[in-house]
Structure of non-specific serine/threonine protein kinase:
Amino acid sequence: MAASCFNPFRLRKTKSKSLSIPSSSRSQLNIDTDNMERKRFDSLESWSMILESESVETWEASNEEREEWTADLSQLFIGNKFASGAHSRIYRGIYKQRAVAVKMVRIPTHKEETRSLLEQQFKSEVALLSRLYHPNIVQFIAACKKPPVYCIITEYMSQGTLRMYLNKKEPYSLSTETILRLALDISRGMEYLHSQGVIHRDLKSNNLLLNDEMRVKVADFGTSCLETQCRETKGNKGTYRWMAPEMIKEKPCTRKVDVYSFGIVLWELTTALLPFQGMTPVQAAFAVAEKNERPPLPASCQPALAHLIKRCWATNPSKRPDFSEIVCALEKYDECVKEGLPLTLHSPLVNRNAILERLKGCVSMSSSIPVCLTPPRHMFPTKPAYWHLSTIKSFWHEQFHVRDSLGWVQKFNKITTRYPLPVVAVRIRSKNL
């Protein structure tokens, strides 16, 4: 069981505010161990995690305070802290015999503006997380409100953040296959998020978590909002190094701010570096918003990936692709890599229908036509035409009832069986062309 990984202790219903001091008969090792545990315990106590019994009972008995997502504190065990922020701490824990992460948010009572902001972020994060279900979105489990401390319980992601993972890698060392796998996880999670009308607004490598299987999940929805509400909201809610220029300028944002941030994350995957190294966050924001600067793309970056990154971080939000298009492009890149094919730009270079019409006018239904992998130059003098093989196969079967004498049918069927989706070019050889 996950509990064996650490020594948990439970939320206690007690008025006691101290631990018993070890007796002098204990060994020095035991004394040191107990002192360390006491420090950890005292640190947690300041967060009101050691709840007084009557307070817990009163809170648990109050129907109006309970929500559908309210945690059963009697089933919650807290372990070691592994991350922290300005107003929050994140601990390992066990909830109902399951390994979890427990985010504790300390709401200050003496700062009205900060208190109001943190309470709103808590409500927003819980409201959004509790309705999201996707393999690439961190799973919400429960939450609780016990002023001045609120907590959110989610699945535990054992491998930490994507930024931590990249920090352990040599620059430019990730393989194209690994880059695509991680990028697909992120983009699929974001595609789902946008399909639910949610804008993340703080997509970055520190908010992307890895599990035991090295799958990525999108996390931290404290600054997220529904798209209809985000349009009415101004202000920079994200992190400067990943922030879209329109957010830096405090303009109303759309879902395309997440696409910009994804472009920066994709750059991180290709380099393993922190974006805008050598700059402070404010300097990075100024460079993006006022000078239209972006992190330098390495020469080793695949041209197709470089093209996608540039589209994602375009200055004009309307020029950035949707995540559905990003997922489609990355899936095709991934298929090409797995089949040992070169990555091709995922953009329509010529109109497919126009090609079909020209071919129909040139080819007899009974012609014997060989197929090769280069386009005729006089039809496409500057750029090749790329079709899906499924489209080519359908066109072949419907339009080219060819004889089998040259073996082209068998060869074509072999290609389509081995490469069901990669993008290839087709040349139709005919005297009429």
